[in-house]
Structure formats: structure tokens, C-alpha cells
Write a structure and sequence with these properties.
4 helices
């Protein structure tokens, strides 16, 4: 019985540790995401506008539905069309994920790339940009913003917002598999613990009831073991005749 109690305590401790670890992992993910969220608003960025002679379009070749997987690289192709009479030099491309509820809240800032690509007057060019959504991002909707900085031949600076729309970050398959495996492990552990506890309760109380019923059944009388057996009794006639002879 002491051995069974120790096993029950160990199973309970393992189950509690698993639940605590699962809860701590989710809380750590939320905290880490919260730490990356900062408020920022740069007045100098707002002062820089785009050029009326530049047309920009974006394309996500691997994610046309704009559902990005956390922890995977996302490639973006930016089409740059120069309709003016001056050449432009693209100096930087950068992006960020923002909260859909408050655009000033930056969830994640992506690495800035400096292509230093020149697009001459009347020409078109394709710019490449790659960003990496953090694996700990909560799967939900965000606002993705991609900016392109460029200067003309007179060194005048411009900035164009090539993409500013809601996207969805979905959970990676590896994270989903690990969560599924861990959830099944906890379920199996809980089921095993319940079965073990039920077996202990049955052995403790079920056997006592069985023994009490058996004792009650066998305690009805000392001669119950003789039931069904014909035991011969002494005849009354013989006893009476014997008494007469003695007289």
C-alpha cells in the first residue's frame, strides 16, 4: 500500500509539473511578445513623402493569401517604376509589424536592407526584401508596413509606403506538433493517474466490502455446513423397549 501511495504521489507531481511548464511557456511567449511591443512615432519620418513620379507595387510570391507562418522567412518583391525625368537611387527597405488596434504600437521591427539600386528615368526595377516573423509571435492578425527610401539625382529624399495592410500570422507546424504531443502526453498522464487512483480505491474499499459480505454469509450458524446431508436419528421405539425391559 505504501508503494502504491508513492507511485500515486509521483504521478500527481509529474502531472502538475507538466501543467505548470505548459502554462509557463505560454506566459513566457506572451511576455516576450509584449517586450517587443514599443510605442514609437518619428516626426522626421512623417516629413518625408513619396515622389509623384514613382509607382510601387508589392508581391508575396510564396504567400499570396498573406498568411505568414511564424518562424519562416517571407520574401517580398517590390516593383519600382520611374515615370519622371530623373533617376532614383533606392537606399533602404524596411518593415514592421504593428498592432491592429493601435498602429503606434510596434510588435516587431524587421531588419533594414540597403539595396542601393538605381532606377533611371522611364525604367522599371524589382526590389527584393526578406523579413522573418518571430517564432514566439502570437498567431493572429497584425498590420504589416513596408517602407522604401530613395533619393533622386538632386539628393532629395523620398519615402513611399509600399505595403500597409492587415496580414495573418499562423502557427508553424513544428510548434503545432509539439503542442499536440504535449497535450496528448498530459491527457494520457491524467488518464493513467485516474486509472491508478481508481484501482487503489477499489483495492482499498472494494475488498473490504467483499470480505464483510463473505463473513456475513458464512456467519449464519455453526451447522450450516451440514445442510443437505441426511443425519440418522435414534429411533424412539428402541429407546422405549429398552426402558420396558429394565422395568
Amino acid at each position: 500500500r505504501a508503494f502504491n501511495m508513492r507511485w500515486a504521489q509521483q504521478w500527481t507531481a509529474l502531472l502538475l509539473l507538466g501543467l505548470l511548464a505548459f502554462a509557463a511557456a505560454d506566459e513566457a511567449d506572451a511576455d516576450e511578445e509584449g517586450d517587443d511591443s514599443v510605442y514609437a512615432e518619428d516626426a522626421s519620418d512623417e516629413a518625408i513623402g513619396d515622389s509623384e513620379f514613382v509607382d510601387l507595387i508589392t508581391l508575396f510570391p510564396d504567400f499570396p493569401d498573406k498568411r505568414f507562418t511564424q518562424g519562416e522567412f517571407i520574401d517580398v518583391l517590390c516593383g519600382f517604376t520611374n515615370t519622371g525625368d530623373k533617376s532614383y537611387n533606392v537606399t533602404a527597405i524596411k518593415g514592421s509589424l504593428n498592432s491592429p488596434f493601435d498602429y503606434r504600437m510596434y510588435i516587431q521591427n524587421f531588419t533594414e536592407m540597403t539595396p542601393n539600386a538605381e532606377v533611371k528615368k522611364g525604367d522599371q526595377g524589382t526590389l527584393f526584401y526578406r523579413f522573418y516573423p518571430d517564432p514566439n509571435l502570437e498567431p493572429r492578425d497584425y498590420v504589416l508596413t513596408i517602407l522604401v527610401d530613395y533619393v533622386d539625382a538632386d539628393k532629395e529624399e523620398y519615402r513611399s509606403v509600399v505595403f500597409n495592410s492587415t496580414v495573418e500570422v499562423v502557427e508553424s507546424q513544428s510548434a503545432l506538433d509539439s503542442r499536440t504531443f504535449f497535450g496528448r502526453f498530459l491527457m494520457l498522464s491524467f488518464a493513467g493517474l485516474c486509472a491508478f487512483a481508481g484501482n487503489m480505491l477499489f483495492n482499498r474499499f472494494g475488498k473490504k466490502k467483499g470480505r464483510a459480505a463473505e463473513a456475513k454469509k458464512t456467519g449464519g450458524g455453526e451447522n450450516e455446513w451440514l445442510s443437505g446431508i441426511n443425519v440418522p436419528r435414534p429411533a424412539e421405539g428402541r429407546s422405549n423397549s429398552g426402558k420396558k425391559k429394565n422395568k
